[in-house]
DNA sequence: CAAGGTGTTGCCACCTCTTGCCGGGCAGGT
DNA sequence: ACCTGCCCGGCAAGAGGTGGCAACACCTTG
């Protein structure tokens, strides 16, 4: 409509051949005019660009990718698209990708290793690299992926695969120290999915820190890292004599708070609750959740950055996992032990 | 690893040529064995499949798409990936796509027409069709997209483009009638983005219904359809004498409730609030939000279904917008006017 | 036994773009 | 005037599939 020329008659777009004919040059010259600036005379290039624009020409990325596999596509696989934990991660990852001329595909694994496998099967051939955000895959499956495409894992450590993680141990230490400072002695950890690497790290850090501080630690679970999982956790918690609990993640914590409230337990007066991740929503639930905050915004950007590095120089020299700091955000769900 | 043969040495995967050589047939036969069952002898096909599996062969979807553009990729463009409104939509859309052998790309437009345009620019060439979920684009821009690829718009009506919408008028009627039934007379509508087609529909339905019921209607806004937007709305509301408000969507409503609570306004005693969409989180905010629920789960599935229809028979005969019902979910944010 | 039918497979052109290589034209040095 | 070397544009070979057409084997039928 706002275009010059006779566009819109068909759904097939002009190719470099059309542009070449219109500009009176060879197709290869058109190709170079776009992908290899400098390699072609400035005037010629200008003329080609002009003609191309007039014809409404757009490079066909799938044909572009054929010769050497450069599709300019990256993928991020998240365990659960509806988990606010990933919001900032996806956003920042996307921004970083775009800034470097890549498009980021967001793939949802539905918290299922099988779905994740299938999704990867479909997506992997399309993309140049992949970020596995909190994957539910086995280490060997992840290594198999990494063998096909440059890969960065998030919140997990897999031998021979680049990774970006938060300082779970430090975060957990802060959480437990906070509770200890409030006079709590009997604390329960609400565990997340067995397949979660982060869950293992958090539980171990929990046990270690409580031990060091001379507290009584217990573990309940595993629970699904969802609101529904939190409801089950609430049930289980009532049979416990703990006065405080640290949950695997915020969703679980919020679900547990809701369940407990429904069961007549007053939070934080009767029970203090701490979550992990500081997700969207953790500040407007009731009461606002005290939580261990990860620098989510940097998380995604950082992962993509590492991926891009791998793409640029495919050195087999693997680097250490990048460790991002964690801090405690104190809100209304924790209080002094009466 | 778990594979037979000498896999893993390189990142380049076997092609039909490798399979053909190993199976002692021509490459085209391998191609047909996969993409045209029946067209090749059952035994030959079986042998080829066996060899292919042994070699770890996977069809390369981008090469596959070269001749006729069949990439088996669809895209859904959402206004804001972090808006829970889209969760169920994306999930159901994805499931429908996968069930039909397609992969769904999720594209985030960041509530910006410009970002949406750029994202489409990058994605459109890759996909066979696109669902525009609550697009911020102009009608003519959308028609331009529809000219390039089969398109379905959601929550909006654009001439000559297939669409799936909820019954905004009916939903708004239910909401206003609910408030009228509770004795409210002065009601305010909190408007969403100017570029939102749904906002226009809702506001018009609001005005019409309030008029019919003899209520005093006012409009405030526009506000961003986010929690932050709701905070501004809360400010603006305090200067109003309304006893009830209907917000453009749930996020705006929840943000407004938070802002009002902070300003010392008690909900629902002093002010009743109704949202739109019944998103994830609307039931665990404080108080739980009364809202107009759309059948989100069907929404995405339906849109993709229509898209697949267009793909299968590219008839120019356009159909009427599909209208999905809306109902009111009464929760704690509305009460009788004192 | 020849003619015709049917079912399978191979050959090759094609989809769009990239890239190595080559040659023509031109400028500058001798 | 001739050689050298650079710059630029063209040619053609892929990249990994698809699909039309033809060949060929084998079987049926007259």
Name some characteristics of this structure.
434 Repressor (Amino-terminal Domain), Rossmann fold, disordered N terminus, DNA-binding, 6-stranded mixed sheet, alpha/beta, transcription (chains A, B), homodimer, 338 residues, HTH_LacI (chains A, B), transcription regulation (chains A, B), 12 helices
Care to count the β-strands of chain A?
12
CATH architecture of the largest domain in chain A: 3-Layer(aba) Sandwich
Order of helices and strands of chain A: HHHHEHEHEHEEHEHEHEHEEHEE
Structural class of the secondary structure composition of chain A? alpha/beta
Q: Largest interface by residue count?
A: A-B, 47 and 47 residues
Largest sheet of chain A: 6 strands, parallel
Assembly type = homodimer
Which sequence of strands runs across the widest sheet of chain A? 2-1-3-4-5-11
> At the third CATH level, what is the topology name of the largest domain in chain A?
Rossmann fold
- Percent range of helical residues of chain A: 40-55%
Number of H- or I-type helical stretches of chain A: 12
Number of domains of chain A: 3
CATH superfamily of the largest domain in chain A: Response regulator
Regions with little confidence, pLDDT below 50 for 5+ residues of chain A? 1-9
Note the beta-strand portion of chain A.
15-25%
| Average pLDDT for all residues of chain A | 88
The CATH C-level name of the largest domain in chain A is Alpha Beta
Using the CA coordinates, give the radius of gyration of chain A: 26 Å
